[in-house]
Amino acid sequence: MKPTLTRFASRVPAPLAIITALLLLPGISRAADSAVSFLEQHCYDCHDAEMKKGDMPPKKKKQPDPTVKVEFLAELDPRLVEATSAGEFGRVRIRRMMRVKFQNSLQDLLALPRFDIVGLLPSD
After folding, report:
1. I need a labelling partner for 108 at 20 to 30 A (CA). Which of 6, 50, 118, 123 fits?
2. What crossing angle do the helices spanning 13-42 and 66-86 adopt, rounded to 10°?
3. Which run of H or of E encompasses 13?
């Protein structure tokens, strides 16, 4: 049986996605390398795991070129925004109905006008 176009089309997206990801990896790696090299050149001397000192930026040290600094900050900004907003879209808080509203809902749904369970439910 010959493969039909639909079979072929169903097999194309996965390899295409893999090829696209592989083509994008060098750019991502280059961006990460430039950020790491910037930090190594300008930050790690005073700010590492053991040593945290000084005012920013240090007056005696050579300052980065303004264009390099702007490029670094432009690269860093989307990552910080993504990291900050990652916590905002977590679980939604469980909302509880008040006892009287719950009783009224059950009365409406079950068509029981004298159904009284407020005393049996935990307090609001």
Report:
1. 123
2. 120
3. helix 13-42
Residue with the two structure tokens 């790690």: 44
Give the predicted TM-score (pTM) of the model: 0.39
- d(Cα 77, Cα 68) in Å, to the nearest integer? 14
CA 15, 19, 22 angle in degrees (round to 5)?
140
Residue type, 85: S
Residues in the chain: 124
List 47's β-bridge partners, or say none: 52
Distance between CA 68 and CA 50 in Å, rounded? 27
| pLDDT, tens digit, 9 for 90 and up, residues 16-41 | 566 655 555 554 545 566 777 887 88
